[in-house]
Write a structure and sequence with these properties.
By secondary structure, this protein is α+β, with helices and mostly antiparallel strands. The strands form three sheets. A four-stranded antiparallel sheet has the order 3-5-7-8. Strands 1-4 form a two-stranded antiparallel sheet. A two-stranded parallel sheet has the order 2-6. A hairpin with a 7-residue loop joins strand 7 and strand 8.
Length: 218
């Protein structure tokens, strides 16, 4: 089954410290800002590291594992054989304060428009989850069972939703939903990926949105 990890829930998402590499940052280090997401450009990663925030080497963001698969569940020995948890984590985006803000501002004054974008960032929290399943009929077709991506600009809403999501996902009868979803595949398999995820989220969690902002779970 799925189990809850101990994961970070930082409330204050501010960066104050300046990296030693600040003076040597190049123009291209500020390229590809992602103000509406969580991916960090090279310059941002340097500031995160200077503030002791661990940046994921592949995804280029600050995240922490939320749920994991308990492979030793005594009553569901085959859970890990049928299901594949590709990822389950919370992620965070900070803004710049104090000396860090002034350092970014110096780059912006020098004409780096991407640095100007970083000065306008707001703190945000996110939850990302994806689980695959096999059809269980002997063909072992692997299909996406549930995918969630939620963003929050309120710590209270993020914290409450993280609890609700964890509680819901750890209590579900996943075999039941996997069987039902596969039996009803004619209703979703020809839909776009976006609409498929909406359909599946409605079936499993009773929610209308698999992405962005939510306030509560049933």
């Amino acid at each position: 089954m799925l189990s809850v990890n101990e994961f970070k829930r930082p409330q204050r998402l501010n960066l104050y410290e300046v990296p030693e590499s600040n003076d040597s940052l190049e123009r291209e280090d500020f390229d590809y800002p992602d103000p509406h997401g969580f991916k960090l450009n090279i310059a941002e990663q340097e500031f995160y590291k200077a503030n002791n925030k661990i940046v994921h080497p592949f995804y280029g963001n600050w995240q922490d594992t939320m749920l994991h698969m308990n492979l030793d569940h005594p009553n569901e020995a085959n859970f890990s054989n049928r299901f594949l948890l590709t990822h389950s984590y919370t992620q965070y985006r900070c803004n710049f304060k104090g000396a860090a803000y002034e350092a970014i501002k110096t780059h912006a004054i020098c004409g780096l428009r991407h640095a100007q974008i970083l000065l306008q960032l707001r703190p945000k929290w996110g939850i990302s989850f994806q689980l695959y399943a096999k059809n269980g009929s002997g063909c072992n077709t692997l299909y996406e069972l549930l995918s969630l991506d939620y963003n929050y600009i309120s710590y209270a809403e993020f914290n409450n939703s993280a609890d609700a999501i964890c509680n819901k996902l750890t209590q579900l009868d996943w075999d039941k939903y996997a069987d039902e979803m596969w039996d009803r595949r004619e209703e979703w398999e020809l839909l776009s990926l976006y609409d498929q995820r909406q359909w599946k989220c409605k079936l499993v969690l009773g929610l209308d949105n698999h992405y962005t902002h939510i306030t509560s779970l049933k």
